Every structure is written in structure tokens, then in C-alpha cells.
Amino acid sequence: RKMIEKINQLKQKILFYFEKNQFKTAEKYIASILKKSEESEEILDMLAFSLLKQSKFEDAIKVYLKLIQKYDKNDYLIFFNLGNCLGNLGHREESIEYLKRSYSLNNKSFESLNNIGLQYEYSNKLDKAIKYYSSAIKINKEFELGYTNLAGVLEKQGELDKAHDLYEACLRINKINIDALLGLANINHMKKNYNQSNKLFLKVLKIDENSKNAYTGLGGTLLAQGKHENGLEMLKKGSGIVRFERGHEMKILCD
Asked: In a 10 Å sphere around its CB, with 0-12 CB exposed, 13-18 middle and 19+ buried, how is residue 86 labelled?
């Protein structure tokens, strides 16, 4: 009985550290439980999620596969996160397979459809990416990332008016969505609407003063207007920011 109480206390600590996004610490408590008792479905689930959040994708895959094989887990979240792990490692076809399995288990999972679209986009199968991004926002009309992902692909294909409308639709949901604002700014730049482009890049910088994409985009637009000194200054500011900016993330779910 004391052992059960001790394990339950450790589980509470794991959940506490999950909430604090301290997954490395949570993993230590999970390891402690595994030393004191036999592995269980619940603990393996916690371990897989902890590994996933630390970007230990190969280790997480092993645990997720064990959950499926040993416990016959048929949970869409398991297949969803497994698909995301594989996608992050560049295994596109396998990722799509598991994400489709996830969607088959929960046909309201717009996140699964979005991430299938993402894998097709990374594979340069843009028509398929458009199909799945479109399906995602049909299920959830408030899904901002779906709008910006779909707009981004259409922008790549030169469908600027359609992309513009999607970015605008996203901004009606959230007027400070940075990906949508940047997308509109880029489209205005391509259409040589430089003043409008500048306004949008400046709006992004009011929201996030460290946006590398806004500085470099603004610099490019100023250069196109012949404002070389100001343009170079903005480009210099942008080059000094080391940061990854892109919507498109592989969203992770947990129960």
C-alpha cells in the first residue's frame, strides 16, 4: 500500500512538471516509477509524451510503438503524436500513414488533416497539401494555422488573390496573427503596393519587436522604394536576430 501511495505521489509530480513544461524533470520522476514498479500503459504514455516534448523523437517512437503493440492502444492521440515524431525526423510517408490512422479514429481531428497537409507540402506535393489544409478548416473554421498554411501554399503557386483572401479570413479570427500579417505584407510587396506592405511589417513589429521576418521584409520593401539607407538598416537589424519563424509547426496533442 505504501508503494502505491508513493507511486501516486510521483505521478502527481510528473503532472505538475508537465504543466510547468519541465519535461526533463518529469522524465526523471517517470524513471523513478519504472524502477519501483513494472511499466504500465499510463506510465509509458507519460514517458512518450515527455520524450516528444523534449524533441527526443526516436526514443518517443519506440515507446509509442510499444504502447500500440503491447497494449493494443487504438487511441487517435497515440497515432497523431507518432506521426508527428516521424514527420519531425523527415519520414514523410510513414508520418502520413500514422496521421491518416489518427484521423480514421477521430474524423473531427482537424489537426491530423493539417499535419498530413504539412507532410505533403514538405514533400512538394502541393495539390495534396491544399486538399488537406482545406479539409482542416472546413472542420474548424476558427483554425488559424490552417488558413495561414493553406494561404502559404497558394502563395507559392502564384495564387496571390486566393492567398490574400485566406490571410484576411485568418485576421478576422485573430487580428494580430503574425503569420497572416506577414503573408499579406509579402503579397502587397509582390504586387508593388509598397506603402501597404510597410504598414503591415511595422504592425508586426509593434506586436513582436524581434520579428526577423518583419525587419528583413521591411528592409526589402524600403529598398524597392529606393530608400536604400533605411532599407539596409532594417536588413541589418533582421540579420542580427537568430530565430526561427514559421507557422507550419507540427502540433502536439495530449490528453
From this structure: buried
